[in-house]
Amino acid sequence: MIRLAFRNLFQNKIRLVISVGGVALALLLILSLDAIFTGVERRITVYVKNSSADIFVAQSGVRNLHMASSSMPAFVRSKVKAVPGVDSVSPIQYVSNMVVIGDERNLAYIIGLPEKAAMGGPWRVSAGRSRPDPGEAIIDRTVAKNSGITLGDEVEILGEEFEVVGLTEETASLVNSVAFISEDDFTDLRGDPGTISFLLVKVKDGELPASVARRIQARVRDVTVQTTGEFANQERKVVKDMSTDLITIMNLIGFLIGLAVMALTVYTATLSRRAEYGVLKALGASNRQLYRTVLAQATLSVLIGFLVGLIITLILSFIVDGLGLNMELLVSGVSLVKVAGLSLIIAGFSAILPIRQITGLDPAAVFRGK
To answer: Which phi and psi (to 5°) does residue 205 adopt?
Structure first.
């Protein structure tokens, strides 16, 4: 029966290309969307993960960077430093604002770095310096390239002109980028001296970040304390919540396209072999055996379509990576499991109509040409 399914599938090459191509395009839609948003999630947490911090301390109730604001009295730093297990503490200033280059406005995380900051600064500088002095800024290389500027040119941040003295990698996404200025400039422009936005904490060797985080939370009032992993997860959650409806709609469209293409293909392929199925029934083949043939044919088609869609998605990920865009495509294990499950559902549903035809098939009527 499996051989019959294989023969039915590959006998008509044009039909095979149409069926597999339709399924591959539908699954490609689902895979590529998931890959895009997985890439966005990774890029939007790249600053947190490369901050060198074990723990993030923020204003009470603030659990992420994106679309958030945090402000704490500067004396909180000494209180956190005094907690057992804390090795070092680095304050940073933060606001979400625009990097203005000519007529272009680029949304960015603006980070105000103290002099000789041990944590929270650029982690991969492709040109120039890694720490800004007053009047200087470090921005993402892709943002600079797209805007036609380079080292020594000026950009506007928080309403003030800054000289670009460094270009960073991996600090831009479809959502925003990261720009660095000095803490002094940040405080002067924001007009809020005596406050800090976040504290980046490094724990002592042998200490567990989660344990130290609980100690800080218990000893310091009016703050929210999270490990770097927890902070990154909250950042991802914000993006995921914003994009859930879009992903759901597009995945549903891809699923319906794949289902319609496969159902039509398997149905017509089964009807074109109606006489053969009649002969098999006359020779004693049970309905269950014929069902397995149709289901195997649908499963083979979907499996091939899944592999083609996956290969195209991986090729696209390499192409996008080589173009230097503010995005990346990442095919995750979760996405593969989800799409594989959808593929099996498509195979099962697409076999329903042909199976109903086989159930009512009368071998004698087939031989009489009815």
So the answer is: -55, 135
Helix axes of 228-272 and 352-359: crossing angle, nearest 10 degrees: 30
Residue in 201, 224, 175 with CA at minimum distance from that of residue 70: 224
Quick one: which H or E segment has residue 226?
strand 223-227
Give mean pLDDT, residues 271-297. 69
* Rounded CA separation 350/262 (Å): 6
Written as one string, the DSSP assignment of 254-292 is HHHHHHHHHHHHHHHHHHHTHHHHHHHHHTT--HHHHHH
Residue 316 tokens read as 């696209």
- CA 149-153-156 angle, to 5 degrees, is 95
75 backbone dihedrals φ, ψ, rounded to 5°: -70, -15
Residue in this structure with the two tokens 């869609």, named with its chain if needed: 309
C-alpha pair distances (Å), 257 with each of 16, 24, 32, 46, 71: 16, 10, 15, 35, 49
pTM of the model: 0.73
Query: Please, which residues have CB within 8 angstroms of residue 203's CB and are 6 or more apart in sequence?
Result: 54, 55, 85, 86, 87, 209, 212
The pLDDT of 274-296, averaged and rounded, is 70
DSSP 172: B
According to DSSP, the β-strands at 198-203 and 55-59 are: antiparallel
Confidence class for position 288, pLDDT limits 50, 70, 90:
confident
> Using one digit for the tens of pLDDT, what is the confidence trace for 157-179?
999 999 999 999 888 877 788 99
User: Could you tell me which residues come within 8 angstroms of residue 286 by beta carbon, excluding any fewer than 6 positions away?
Assistant: none
Cβ neighbourhood burial of 4 (10 Å; 0-12, 13-18, 19+): buried
| Distance in angstroms (rounded) separating the CA atoms of residues 85 and 133 | 32
Cβ atoms of 319 and 35 within 8 Å: the answer is no
The one-character DSSP state at 327 is: -
- Strands in the chain per DSSP E: 55-59, 72-73, 86-101, 104-113, 125-128, 136-140, 154-157, 160-168, 177-182, 195-196, 198-203, 223-227
